[in-house]
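Batch job 17 of 40 flagged for manual review because the log was empty.
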Amino acid sequence: METVSEDDLDRREARLRRLTASVPYALLATSTTLTLITGDLPWPEPLELFGLVALATALMWGVARSNPDRASRPWSTGALVLALIVLIAMLSARGVWFAIFFGFVGYLYSWQFLRGRWRFVGVTATAAITVTVYMGESFQTPSSVLLYLFFVACVVTLVAVFSQIGEVTAQRSDERRRMVERLRETIRENEGLHAQLLVQAREAGIHDERERMAQEIHDTLAQGFVGIITQLQAAERAMGADESESRVRVEGAIRLARENLAEARRSVHALGPAPLESTPLAEALAELTKGWSRLHGVRAEFTTTGRVSPLHHEVEATLLRTVQESLSNVARHAEASRVGVTLSYMEDLVVLDVRDDGVGFASKEAKPESGFGLTSMHQRVSRLAGALEIESEPGAGTAVCVSLPAIAREGSDG
């Protein structure tokens, strides 16, 4: 089925209105032409005919012009329609073609420009004129009178029925047009709201990007610089006493610098952590724990429990960054001799524990502004509707526990 756009419908309706407005003048011209061709009018009847035609044209123009104001001046419009019906009778007396063609204008204008019962008065008067011309009888017998009344009643009924149908159709068309206008107005309002939302979203995106870069700088560059400084300090202490130890520490600092340079570039381009690019989370955490242990000379073990399954990239990145931050804190503050990292896959949750046997700290020190990097960890975990818990006591070590929804990676069996 062919689809028609609203613009096409509007253009068609405009053409139909123009055609409808020109029909009465075309009917008058047709009736006049046929009357002059077929009728043998003695002089000066053609002049009288043209005068009546000109008057009928002026009346039709006047009725059409008064259409917008007919609600405030109904009697003037009614008088013009009545005068037009009288002209139809006068013209029909001079030629039957006026009754056949131009009489239709009387029905049209009576129903369109009159109101209430006056519609039926105008239609009945027009029908009486045209039927009289059609029958051409004097109505002297009762049967002729009954036949005349029957034809008039039939014509009035048909005009009323078809006019009602056309009126209902026009009302529905107007209602549809109003609905389209309301819809367009709503769309315009929504476009304004959409533009406002775009501005707000752009501002929010800028704010989020700033926060992301701050977190990435902390999780990569800051931790990397701390690790490099730690290695260089150890190399400085071993210089002159143990050259091999010093060389190992310097090599460790260089490796950390390269790794964190690569991570900084990935952060600028909003890429995920490099360890997760081609390695499962459990293996990446195991390598991270092993490398940290080798670098800092602290015994560290990684353990996995539960059924391992691929998780959403954001979840895995958050867990990796949490382990990085926690191990960095252990290296800087804990003075621990042993660290345990446990990743537990549960039915709906994935839980990460990082425990050390270091010096610990008082609970009131575990604040975002305390310098332990808790702000970054808390923001990452909260963004994924997770929970972060830190337990520590002076001399009893520290435990960092993160629980996140086990959101499966798209396309995985989980």
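Reviewer: the log was empty due to a logging misconfiguration, but the result itself is present. Residues 68-72, 367-372 have pLDDT under 50 and may be disordered. Unflagging and moving on to job 18.
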